[in-house]
Amino acid sequence: MSAVNDDTVTSEARSGLRRQVGLRWRSRDPLLPALPSDLPPGCGAPLRVTGAGGAVLAAGSCAHWEGEPAALDLTWGAARRFELTAWVAGPGGPAVTRVLDSLLEQWREHLVGLPDPAAADTAAVVTWPSRDVDGAACLLRRGFAPLAVIAARITGTDPSQPATPGLGGAAVPAGVRIRRAGTADIDTLVRCGLEVVRFDAHFGGVQERPSTAEALRREFTAMLALPRPWIWLAERDGEAVGMLAAEQPEQAGWIAPRARSAPVSYLLLMGVRAGERARGIGAALSARLNEEVLAAGVPLTLLHYAQVNPLSAPFWSQQGYRPLWTCWEARPPGCIR
Ligand SMILES: CC(C)(COP(=O)(O)OP(=O)(O)OC[C@H]1O[C@@H](n2cnc3c(N)ncnc32)[C@H](O)[C@@H]1OP(=O)(O)O)[C@@H](O)C(=O)NCCC(=O)NCCS
Fold first, then answer.
1. Does the CB atom of residue 200 touch ligand 1 within 6 A?
2. CATH top-level class for 165-320?
3. Which residue puts its alpha carbon closest to atom 21 of ligand 1?
4. Do the beta carbons of residue 89 and residue 56 sit within 8 Å?
């Protein structure tokens, strides 16, 4: 097995590799795309692993991303990100682990060769299928932490997929009213959104930026401009105690390539005020979205949660979501071993 430092992977080898990755994904998780999206052009760093007879065992692409100061994306992670898309061939097992390890070593060498690989607020990011478990130990050994999960919930409208069990229409707790938000609620939504960001910031991925409040305001304003915005407030005595904001398929196209079924909806943000948690408000908000998603015939809903947020994983599991992708990060990239 060796690293190849040129760009001579033929299109035939590339499509063979892509097919092999797709085959393993299908055997691991029916919700993954049938084939990986094409490798993005990236920065051009040659990331390839070859085996006997020159067979291409893995290829990768490294994208360099820098957030605009005002962008909401900046709140969800580091200001500068190096994102690896990794295609690793093979049915699974130790061979896959070894090949991924070799690809990560090449990527590490590329990243430490960049100016200031230890700069603050930078991250190396690998998004790997959660059920493709042969990657996990290798990523951990290399110094990556599983910071976030992209979780999926099947709506049950796609005849090729079994419906998700779990809570259907959770009852709204006594004294609480759930209503669709309108433009007059923008200040409340920004305040609730900031509370969620501040809570999630405990777990090392999300961080409040000077621009976060304004970015949330822009995001919610755009969502509220739709005819029936997928944003709801939970209120007690007229006061907001929780909120949920989700993107409809027209806005969620950016994440649809992560899943087999399309279109998808995306749950952007949800939170319940601290003193009101564990009373069923979160479940009722989530059920409200489920009803809307079902009525719209959208087969899948995706969301991100912080892996180590102790409230998130059990809650979303109860609402019928399960891990699809795990977002592994080394911050800064110089931490990769
Ligand atoms: C995650 C979050 C939105 C859940 O909202 P919530 O209103 O607390 O959720 P629920 O009350 O419906 O469910 C939470 C728990 O309370 C339990 N519960 C629900 N109704 C209950 C009741 N009447 N009495 C006692 N427990 C109850 C649920 O079974 C659930 O238990 P579990 O965590 O052991 O599975 C909320 O905890 C929150 O805002 N967290 C901070 C922000 C955050 O983490 N956001 C990121 C989400 S990705």
1. yes
2. alpha beta
3. 279
4. yes
